[in-house]
Amino acid sequence: MPNQQALRGIYAITDADLLADDTQLQTAAESAMRGGLKLLQYRDKTADPSKALRQARLLADLCLSYNCQLIINDDPELAKAANAAGVHLGQSDSNLIDARELLGKKAIIGSTCHNSIELASLAAQSGASYLAFGRFFPSLTKPQAPSACLDILKVASQFNLPLVAIGGIQPEHLPSLAKAGASMVAVVAGIFAQPCPKTAVETYRNIFEPTLSFTSYEANYDTLSRSV
Ligand SMILES: Cc1ncc(COP(=O)(O)OP(=O)(O)O)c(N)n1
Ligand SMILES: Cc1ncsc1CCOP(=O)(O)O
Ligand SMILES: [Mg+2]
C-alpha cells in the first residue's frame, strides 16, 4: 500500500475519450503531477480488462515517482492488482464492505452519494474513507449524472469525513465549494481536456488550497495532518 496522505485538495480523474492511448494517458497524468497533483483516479468505462490492468499499473508506477495516490474507479480487484491506494465505488458498483475486506483497512475507499444524506450515512457506516457528492454543475464528461446542491455539503459535515465535490467544476466554482465544506474537488475536463494539465492543476490549487485551511473538515484537526 502506498504512503497515506491527507485527503484534501485537487482530485483529478482520467477519461478514456480525452486520453486515448497509453502515451497520452501517461503524458497528461505526469503533467498533472508536475503541477502538484496528489490524488488521481483512473476511470475508464470501456471495460477492456487487459488495457485497464496495463494502464492502472502504468499510473501506479508514475504515482510512486510523484508521491501521488492512485484510486481506481469501480473495480476493487483492479485496485488490488495494480497496488493502488484505493477504489471509488458508486451505487451500482461493488459493495463497500466487501471492497474493504479485499483491500484492507488502510485502503482509501470513496463512495458516490449523489445528493443524498441517506446514502452518505450508509457509506459512512460501511467504512467509507470519503463521501462524494455531485454533479454540482453541468458536466460534458457525465451529463446525465444526478445533480446536487451546495447545501448537501454543509449537512454532510456531520459525518466528519472528507467530502468530495464533483461535476463540471471550474476554477471559479472553488471558493463556494470550499465554503460549503468540500475538502476535495474531483475534476476531469477542467484538467485533462486542457492543453496543459500541469497549468490547470496549478490554477485549481492556487485557488482551492488557501481557502481550504479555514473551511474544510480538517479545520478541527491537528495542523500536522495538513500535508498536501
Ligand atoms: C470522486 C468521484 N465521485 C464520484 C464518482 C462517480 O462514481 P459513479 O457514481 O460510480 O459513476 P462512474 O464514475 O462509475 O461513472 C467518481 N467516479 N469519482
Ligand atoms: C464521474 C462523474 N460523476 C458525476 S459528474 C462526473 C464527471 C466529472 O467530470 P467533469 O469534471 O468533466 O465534469
Ligand atoms: Mg462507478
Automatic annotation (TrEMBL):
**Positions with a binding annotation for Mg(2+):** D74, D93
Q: What class of enzyme is it?
A: transferase
**Pathway recorded for this protein:** Cofactor biosynthesis; thiamine diphosphate biosynthesis; thiamine phosphate from 4-amino-2-methyl-5-diphosphomethylpyrimidine and 4-methyl-5-(2-phosphoethyl)-thiazole: step 1/1
Cofactor(s) needed, names only, are:
Mg(2+)
User: Thiamine phosphate synthase/TenI domain location, by residue?
Assistant: 10-191
Query: Which residues take part in binding 4-amino-2-methyl-5-(diphosphooxymethyl)pyrimidine?
Result: Q41, Y42, R43, D44, K45, N73, T112, K142
Cofactor: bound how, per the entry note? Binds 1 Mg(2+) ion per subunit.
| One matching Pfam family | TMP-TENI
Record: residues binding 2-[(2R,5Z)-2-carboxy-4-methylthiazol-5(2H)-ylidene]ethyl phosphate = S139, L140, T141, G168
Q: Which reaction does it catalyse?
A: 4-methyl-5-(2-phosphooxyethyl)-thiazole + 4-amino-2-methyl-5-(diphosphooxymethyl)pyrimidine + H(+) = thiamine phosphate + diphosphate; 2-[(2R,5Z)-2-carboxy-4-methylthiazol-5(2H)-ylidene]ethyl phosphate + 4-amino-2-methyl-5-(diphosphooxymethyl)pyrimidine + 2 H(+) = thiamine phosphate + CO2 + diphosphate; 2-(2-carboxy-4-methylthiazol-5-yl)ethyl phosphate + 4-amino-2-methyl-5-(diphosphooxymethyl)pyrimidine + 2 H(+) = thiamine phosphate + CO2 + diphosphate
Q: What is its EC number?
A: 2.5.1.3
Write out the entry's keywords from A to Z.
Answer: Magnesium, Metal-binding, Thiamine biosynthesis, Transferase
Name the InterPro entries for this protein: Aldolase_TIM, ThiamineP_synth_sf, ThiamineP_synth_TenI, TMP_synthase
Function in brief: Condenses 4-methyl-5-(beta-hydroxyethyl)thiazole monophosphate (THZ-P) and 2-methyl-4-amino-5-hydroxymethyl pyrimidine pyrophosphate (HMP-PP) to form thiamine monophosphate (TMP).
Q: Which NCBIfam families does this entry report, sorted A to Z?
A: thiE
Q: Which family does it belong to?
A: Belongs to the thiamine-phosphate synthase family.
Q: What is this protein called?
A: Thiamine-phosphate synthase
Which gene is transcribed and translated to give this protein? thiE
